Amino acid sequence: MVLQQGLNQEKSAAYAVLMYFFKPLFLLIPVIISTVIASSSFVGEKENKTVEGLLYTPLTNKELMLGKILASAIPSMIITWLSMIVYGVILDTFGFYVFGEMIFPDINWLIIGLILDPLIVFLAISLIITVSQRVKTSKSAQSVSVVMALPIMGLIISQAAGAMLFGIKISLLLSLVLIIIDIVVFLIISKRFNREKFIMRI
After folding, report:
1. Which of 26, 64, 105, 177 sees the fewest Cβ atoms within 10 Å?
2. Within a 10 A sphere around the Cβ of 10, how many other Cβ atoms?
3. pTM of the model
4. Residue 133: closest CA among 57, 42, 41
């Protein structure tokens, strides 16, 4: 864990909590938001029987999947970034009073907000699209958020227990792994998406 130099024990503990403990929460926020938006968008159209026109367009499966992912990912990331900015303002206000300087954002927070969060959102929405082909309700599709939340909750518990801290190396490693997973999952769902079967299940 990298802490500022010259801090006493109490300030070091406060710095660790503010700059490390809440990082996984900002991975959880976009997952929850994106699953709600995506399930309402894709599966919601399926429930309301308004998706047929979209499926009959000349768009390729990759274009269709990417468009659906971006339509849900963009508002999810905007909300997440706004939440992060609000947190940063509060943190810097408190940090300037306690530490004598603004402490947010550091490199790790930038990696989380600009790289890791979008990758997690992309994966969450891709999984919802996969699930949506087999379920008929948006509530069923939202079960993806539970699956995505479990490893994030593990990070929170690990940090609280002092077993692991969410530092730059972990963020970069997760980003690399998620890039590979996102590409593989996107290619799989694009290839296996069957419009005829999807329409028959509406």
Report:
1. 177
2. 9
3. 0.79
4. 42
